[in-house]
Every structure is written in structure tokens, then in C-alpha cells.
Design brief:
The chain is α+β, with helices and mostly antiparallel strands. Helix content is 23%, strand content 35%. The protein is built from three helices and twelve strands, in the order H-H-E-E-E-E-E-E-E-E-E-E-H-E-E. It comes from Phytoactinopolyspora halotolerans.
Amino acid sequence: MKHRRRPARRSAARAVGVVALLVATLMTGRALDRVLPAADDAARGFERSGVVGEQLRLRYGTVEAGRPEGSTQIVTAGGTYLSTGVYVVVPVTFTAAHEPQSLSYAAIRDATGRVFEAGTQRNPFSMDGPAQPGVPRHTQVAVELPVDAVAGAQLVLALQPDDDNHRRDDVAVIDLGLTGADAQRWAAEEEGIRVRPATEGRG
């Protein structure tokens, strides 16, 4: 009788072993999910952090943000634009490194992660074509923000549009050094900030 029961015991042992193997596989898979980057994470750009007045070196050139200004309105070649919030205007200098390049993406990201893109008539940003290597191109980024988005805001600049996840390329993220006091002061400012076309040269 004992001889006949051994196969059953072996089958039971095998079943327990299979279950244990499946459990271990599932646990390993979950652990890898926590450790390995998701596909979206792997496709993101490489953020390079900087501050106002610093020359930030990127793969394709250098960028430098000047001191930001703020008001409830801006004046452009296309007209005057009023905001119920605040316009933040940041001067930007870009110098291409090895070949003619043009920044095509500019945005302001607030302390909570909200992103406000430039590049429209109401939120102007233009490099006016590719910059030649070694020749600085000066422009301005103007973005309309809610008042509560000013404190802790960062300027984000990239070679490629955000739709392409910046093609896993360098992305400049510049701390504008803004506070709640700046936001309140600018929200009461009615003098328009003039946003001028891009210019080229070292002057």
C-alpha cells in the first residue's frame, strides 16, 4: 500500500513546487516593476538644472536666462495683451555649439508641476530661425500665469517639442528665483512689458 501512495505524494510535492515557483515569479516581476524605469520615463529628456545668470551647457549649446520681469500686460508687434493673472517675461540667450540650431520649446513650470507653454501669439517665444554656432541669439519668453504659479517657477527650454518627449535630449530647467512677493507686486503692475523680436550678436 505504501508503495502505491508514493506517486501521489510526488505529484503533491510537484504541485506545491509549481505553485511556489509561480509565486516567486510574480513577486520578482513586481519587484522589477518598482526598480526598472517605465517606458515613458525612459523616453524623457535629460534635465539640466541652472539658475538665473548662469550659462547652462547642453549637448547642442549653452543657454542663459536673465532677470525675469512681471506685469499684468505685455506689448508685442501684434498688439497689447492683458492678463487677469501675471505675465512673466524672461530674457534668454542661446548659443549653438556645433551646428545651426534653434530652441523650439519654452515653458514655465510651477512648483506643483503645472506647465504653461510659450510659443503662441498671446504667449510669445521665437528664436527667429537657427542660431549660428558661437553666435549668441537673444530672445524673450513671455508666459501668462496664474498668480499662485509664480513663486518657485522654473523656465524650461529644449531643442525639440514636448510632443517628442524632447527625444531623450538635454532640457534646460532654470530656477527663476521668484517668490510670492514678486507675484503680488506684479499682479498690481499695469505698465506693459515690451516683448521684442530676437536679435543676434554679443552686444
